[in-house]
Amino acid sequence: MPLQPLTSGQFAEKVRAVNRPGRGAVPFRSVTAECALATASAEINRLGLTARAAVLGVAASPTTRVTLFRDGARVAVGAGKGTGHQGAASAYFEALERYLMSARDNRRWTADATRLLSATVVAGQSALESDLVVRRWAAEFPDAVAACASYGGVRYPTFLTDPRYYRWPVAGDDVRPYRSLLRYSSSLGTAAGVDLAEAVYHGLCELIEHDGLGQALLRWFVAGVPDVDLVPVGDLPDGLRSLHAEAERAAGAPVHLLDVTTDLDVPVYLAVSRTADGEPTRLGAGASLWATDAASRALGELIQVCALSPSAAGSPAGQRLATWPALQRCASMPLDQLLSGPVRAVPLRADVAGDGSPGWGLEHVGRALARHGIGYHVCEIAPVGSPIAVATTIAPGLERFSLVRHGVPVIPTGRGWHLWPSPDQATITRPHPVRAR
């Protein structure tokens, strides 16, 4: 469905029309969606920005897209997951996140937060020992200097956490010596919320989500172990079954829910759907302490992908990787090939008992990482005085190989390295048995 531009009044009315009455609180959010939407609007006004909202996609499952402007120039775009107030709040917060991530007045740019450090010094920090990109930077360009922000005592290069940084680097940071590593630059781990716990929880879950996806791609298409755990639609609770049906309507094709949870035991799901021949598989991913939330996020993201990218005609990402067939398969994720191998039906994982607050979720996810020797470190981004929190979280060792889906030739960045050399040398550790609901 084509984009539908709306005035602010029309948009508010449409939000009220599709907002589902009687919905409970959104898991792992600190306030109601209505309150979050008001907070985001207040921050946009405080920053001197203007917002334009649009609704696209199928009418039953609309996707909100918000564009931010300063003096008529576009500065950021965000898209939301979910319907009604939740979908709108999600879009507004993502737009603010993307704006503040690179804004010159964010906290990462302040003089006391940023230092120019050599690759050797950065890689020498014990907390970054498991980050293979940082180690590669030091091995290939030991004297290269880059701006590094503070993550609670750990210094980490900004060029790896802000994809737009290379356009306006800090004075003294000549990006050219390490430009070959810019392919590993991403916003993974950066998230926004009404408070810091919410932002960090969702940033950390995004890293865990891509750790699961990256290891699955490596296992399936590089190590040659095409084992798939599939959650049957009939085993889903009613709410997720309805959302699954909405995803199928948006995709215009069957949708499969895959469990790619790793040994961290934090649920990670992929919602995937076939496309026309030669086009990459459409994919939505989600991770959360609650499996129901993780699956909902995966299905919601697939709906969003279908609305924002109705067609992947030409598959430029896959074409850029034609020289590397295994990487090309990772980028396109051929679903027919994947599902033709061993497929195991598994139930949706059980939700652990808890209050579903961001603070509670962050505590338990942090423990899950610590059990595997993985720590996380946080850099606050939103300016002092902002009513929202935007933060970048890093968790050295978690895999970011999923960046291959953007059509860039990458190799494993952390825990997936053992899957890289060859199927003969790969050591496959399957997740713990799934507990029935």
TrEMBL record:
Domain (YcaO): residue spans on this chain: 78-437
Annotated protein name in UniProt: YcaO domain-containing protein
InterPro entries documented for this protein: YcaO-like_dom (IPR003776)
Superkingdom assignment: Bacteria
Gene3D superfamilies: 3.30.1330.230, 3.30.160.660
Pfam families: YcaO
Organism: Micromonospora endolithica
PANTHER family: RIBOSOMAL PROTEIN S12 METHYLTHIOTRANSFERASE ACCESSORY FACTOR YCAO
